[in-house]
From TrEMBL:
Domain spans labelled CMP/dCMP-type deaminase: 10-147
Active site per the UniProt annotation: 81 (proton donor)
Keywords assigned: Hydrolase, Metal-binding, Nucleotide biosynthesis, Zinc
Protein name (record): Cytidine deaminase
A single GO BP: nucleotide biosynthetic process
Family: Belongs to the cytidine and deoxycytidylate deaminase family.
Amino-acid positions noted as binding Zn(2+) in the UniProt annotation, renumbered to this chain: 79, 105, 108
Protein's organism: Blautia argi
GO cellular component terms listed in the entry, alphabetical order: cytoplasm
Cofactor dependency: Zn(2+)
Gene3D superfamilies per UniProt: Cytidine Deaminase, domain 2
Pfam families from the UniProt entry: dCMP_cyt_deam_1
PROSITE patterns given in the database record: CYT_DCMP_DEAMINASES_2
Amino acid sequence: MKGKRDGYISWDEYFMGVAKLSGMRSKDPHSQVGACIVSQDNKILSMGYNGFPMGCSDDEFPWAREGDELDTKYFYVTHSELNAILNYRGGSLEGAKLYVSLFPCNECAKAIIQAGIKTIVYECDKYADSPAVKASKRMLDAAGVRYYQYTHTGRKLELEV
Ligand SMILES: Nc1nc(=O)n([C@H]2C[C@H](O)[C@@H](COP(=O)(O)O)O2)cc1CO
Ligand SMILES: [Zn+2]
């Protein structure tokens, strides 16, 4: 008897894949971050990537990392995780899971905790030594938000669009 096909992507590959696809929309020349929020029954609720708020032009606001503080992106950019939370218009995110390509900062951790998100699956933790990420982990630990690093399967996903 003919059964289901092999080679379909797993839930984790699917959701991290969607998070990373979302990150490809980012205009940040240095770090493109993507996030995908999923319900407890594996339904995608929201997505986001790092970018400036509505009305703040990608061509007029600065993308610089250094220089006069007011002329760097850091005051203006909305992180992918916060965008994913704010993009959700459907009600409660209580118990949801967040897939994100970079470990959340302290500001996003506050929003994650307050939104009721209970699990974070992250890909990269390149700023693990920064105070922002240390403070983030301290809050997530205190609030009982579980986080673990995504395990790459090595599968290459290719799309022709
Ligand atoms: N978790 C995160 N989600 C994000 O969306 N970001 C965004 C903010 C900036 O646009 C960029 C980081 O810039 P850089 O310092 O690597 O050039 O990624 C940053 C972090 C890091 O905590
Ligand atoms: Zn953040």
